[in-house]
Predict the structure.
Amino acid sequence: MNQEDMQEKLKDMSPEEIQKLQKQNCIFCHIIEGKVPSKKIHEDEICLAILDINPANPGHILLLPKEHYMIMPQVPEGTMAHLAIIAKQLSSACLKAFKCDGTNIFVANGSAAGQKAQHFMIHIIPRFEKDGVKIQITENTVNKSDLMKVKEIIQGKINIAFNIKETERKEISEDPQLNSENREPEETIPKEIEPQETTLDQEFENAEKKMKETEDLLNSLKGKNNLPHNSNTSEDEGETEDEKENKGRHIQEDDETNIPNRQNPSSQEKSESRTQSTKPKGGKEVNLDDIASLFG
Amino acid sequence: MSCPICEKIKNKKDLIIYEDDTLIGFLEESPSSYGHITLTPKQHLPIFENYDDNLISHIFNTANKISSVLFDSLNIQGTNLLINNGVAAGQKYPHFLLHIIPRTENDNLQLEWEPKKISEDEMNSAEQQLKSAASNVVVVKEKKTEVVEDQETEILETKGDEENYLIKHLRRIP
């Protein structure tokens, strides 16, 4: 069967059927079924722990769920909890058995992340001082305003995923310093802004633009190890962001219902809205929830 | 002695991207890639093994969700979860951290290892040593049922999303 036929066939299949097909071709499913020999360290009804045949260090363990999941997000919470507890105990077994100086617990989702097999697994790697295993966290210096752009993009989706409401988040991230600075604006701004439809439009435009910018940013990162650094602006940016966030949350509560009526503002408005530091950002922090779902 | 992570929990509120009763997720200030998040328990303990099973389960499930969110919201092709447990494993501060790192093709991050050539004897002895050390690995039943109950309610809430995500992902990785 050539590739096109295969793709056609895959399109018609349900996720369950695709999973079944993958299972038939998965070496780790064969190991779990006992068709392929392995060095088993631990086995129970949910998971199997075996020694990696291409280990980073002797004693490198692969912890596999018996069910075939390609990547971590497919693993149900109960199974994940079980795997986590077993991983912890296997890690401590490594420390005991080899008197090693530490362990790495490692998960790769996707081939870009170094995933080699289409079966989700947790690596548990015994580590010794100067063992030559090259797993290290790269630290890049980045511009704080870039960091905050990324934060805005992710924050909305995290709030959705965890069912965090804006009001709750406000309490959580309450900061006495910020509050004292912002108490006044918080009270006055909603009155000023409420009747202005255009502000919301600008907010939307801004948010869309920001998402594009950040995507460009992320794209430009590919293949680069050192990120741009601009220490001059970082402090200021951070502070204004915070101010905006606080104001924005307030605005949102009243204006949410108006959002579907947005129109495309002219390019002039766009550039204006960029320079207006407080209004667009603040509203956007909240509106991003909606925008994020539009971009789906 | 003050712990830099505990200090961060107190003083770097603007970088907090996730928070609940027991965990805090920070956007990393010196990231490996944009969207690099570190998830840490509020309780100050040095390593993985110090935390109780419920918290460990909670950490992994939260990290899993955050990793999905990163995949959905950024233009990335994968994520890594990494725990550096102990100084030899690259741990910097005596406070447990879990890294969630967005990955793109050719991003030049140093997160892969060279397989070591190990003799059959060495493999066998590693197996024996580990087997005896891991002979008492169990999951206490009581705790497990608790977790399963939680899971059922949460799955009902998120099922639609998960299916979409699953289909999307299957299309993306050939």
Observations:
- The radius of gyration of chain A is 25 Å.
- The first strand of chain A starts at residue 40 and ends at 43.
- Chain A touches chain B through 108 residues (CB under 8 Å).
- The beta strands of chain A are 40-43, 47-51, 61-65, 102-109, 122-127.
